[in-house]
From TrEMBL, chains A, B:
Pathway in which this enzyme or protein is active: Lipid metabolism; phospholipid metabolism
One of the record's GO molecular function terms: acyltransferase activity
Catalytically driven reaction(s): a fatty acyl-[ACP] + phosphate = an acyl phosphate + holo-[ACP]
Protein name as catalogued: Phosphate acyltransferase
Native species: Selenomonas dianae
Assembly, per entry: Homodimer. Probably interacts with PlsY.
Major localization class: cytoplasm
Pfam (any one): FA_synthesis
Family affiliation: Belongs to the PlsX family.
Keyword hit for Cytoplasm: yes
EC category: transferase
Length: 337, 337
């Protein structure tokens, strides 16, 4: 398996990306292709114990910045790292692409270069949200907004197949993110989507999920519009950071006994942090395009990158793409019939 | 000041409601009117040290349950506690109403009995979300969905006036909840609302707020559709509960040293919990109706009820209603001109 890594994408690129890729090459059974400024990448690799690893470099002279218009930048910067990396997947020389750069650019590159799977109106980003017993897959978490009900149903089918073949959950519990449990609750989008999900035989639809069900893990897959998903995802990140900051602040201002307590409790708090750390997952698959594409957080460090590459390896091994192609092509045929 | 309390609303009514009301009557300069089943309320009062307090009881023979259709129930159950309580405000015998019962019923009663303020298309629930330095007021958090851009602008004006006159913030920073900082980002609703907020001279509009800005406290007032706000609010509640549960679980499974650490750190963790506890605020004002109406969480205990009554007292004292009436009537006139 060969994975194309956008070495220039992310706040700490290329250093943390290269370090994460090296860690992943040691840990997972995969070959890594780093795409970006060859000189910079080689300089980073030089400092790593990487000579014996299956890592190669493909030069790309341009970078798409966080504030560029995604589709426009993908069209004009033909030699940007994300475009070249995505093209390697298109050409079949790599099995997947990972980028921690501009999410918009990664989505645009995937759409324009890999194209959508037949039967998919809009691709969706499926973010694994930590729960006490594992994760809830929330999609779409920001690829598209103002999605039509049929797009949400396609997301549900894709998310369910991902949970099944990558997480190994036999009949993933699929929920529709809504503001009440009853079928009649919600905005127009949710009210129109509910009966479609109920009628969809490809999934195990378990009704509406409320906001609280996401962190509690009451569903394996939660479906929502990309606007709502993105707000929730960023809210969760902000809240986690805020709580950690407050804990530090309270301990700093506390007495000696409390400081001793914090010290003794540290391994426990660390273990808890690990259970809640999005970096343990690090990457979110973009479902619905003809190729495995995984998106990382802009602030990804080496650890997040390594675990995101782990997500990518699992994604490829799960052969989810074939499953999605099958299910949605058949669904499209039967919907038209 | 007299406050009407729906004594039958909430998961732990009437006990926790009555206990909270007693605590509030001791703490705040207000008279309390408890509305509901007189026998039950008197029985609860009997156990409390309430004889010297300014607490009276108004009998109401019916209760609106959590699963009833709000508007229908309000129309048919004329003698339900929330309807009678809201009517006391309408008649001028009380200055405000508080309920921890069905949010839908409280909103419907307020709309049908108190009516909307002229210039307000849709009322909005303004929930104070805890931040490191205080709160961010998030509205609408669930009164309405699929709001039009002008409704969000009205919410912005109302939320800003509330933050100014109740929280004492001179020029509240108002943000539009969105999925990116740039003006061009977002769904249709957000893209149409942005320029209207920018042009609104009644507020200090500071641009788009992302999900992470809410817990970080980067804005004083964050405006969103009730669908998004409700999902975020319930997500926050669920996450907070999940984290607390995990801390307990980790400590239970930890070694003796960690247990000792937890013990020593307990006062610090409690202080932190207090800073993040929504119960410290307990109540969310429903803005946009002709009367002060405050809504509490269904799971409110006596502590939440007492602090929600504190919110209600502040709301009345802030004379926000007059401010809102003035601003929106003038705005309506100038919008029409």
């Amino acid at each position: 398996m060969r994975i194309a890594i956008d070495a220039m994408g992310g706040d700490f690129a290329p250093r943390e990306i290269v370090q994460g890729a090296v860690a992943a090459a040691k840990k997972y059974d995969c070959e890594i292709v780093l795409i970006g400024d060859e000189k910079q990448i080689r300089a980073e690799l030089h400092g790593e114990d990487a000579a014996a690893l299956r890592i190669s470099v493909v030069h790309a002279s341009e970078v798409i910045g966080m504030n560029e218009h995604p589709a426009e930048a993908v069209r004009t910067k033909k030699d940007s790292s994300i475009v070249v990396a995505t093209r390697l997947v298109r050409e079949g020389s790599c099995d997947a692409v990972f980028s921690a750069g501009s999410t918009g650019a990664a989505v645009a590159a995937a759409q324009l270069i890999l194209h959508r799977i037949r039967g998919v109106g809009r691709p969706a980003i499926a973010t694994p949200m930590p729960t006490p017993d594992g994760v809830t897959l929330m999609l779409d978490s920001g690829a598209n907004v103002d999605s039509r009900p049929e797009h949400l149903v396609q997301s549900a089918v894709m998310g369910s197949l991902y949970a099944q073949h990558v997480f190994g959950i036999e009949r993933p519990r699929v929920g529709l993110l809504n503001i009440g449990e009853e079928e009649t609750k919600g905005n127009e989008q949710a009210k129109e989507t509910y009966p479609l999900l109920k009628a969809e035989h490809n999934i195990n639809f378990c009704g509406n999920a409320e906001g609280r069900d996401v962190p509690k893990g009451n569903f394996d897959v939660v479906i929502c519009d990309g606007f709502v998903g993105n707000v929730v995802l960023k809210f969760a990140e902000g809240l986690a950071k805020t709580i950690l900051g407050l804990i530090r602040e309270e301990i700093r201002g506390a007495g000696l006994m409390a400081k001793l307590g914090a010290l003794l409790l540290m391994p426990t708090l660390r273990r808890l942090g690990k259970r809640l750390d999005v970096r343990e997952y690090g990457g979110a698959p973009l479902l619905g395009v003809n190729g495995c594409c995984v998106i990382g957080h802009g602030s990804s460090d080496a650890k997040s990158v390594a675990s995101a590459i782990g997500v990518t390896v699992d994604y490829v091994n799960g052969k989810v793409l074939d499953q999605i192609r099958d299910a949605l092509a058949k669904k499209g045929d039967s919907d038209r019939a």
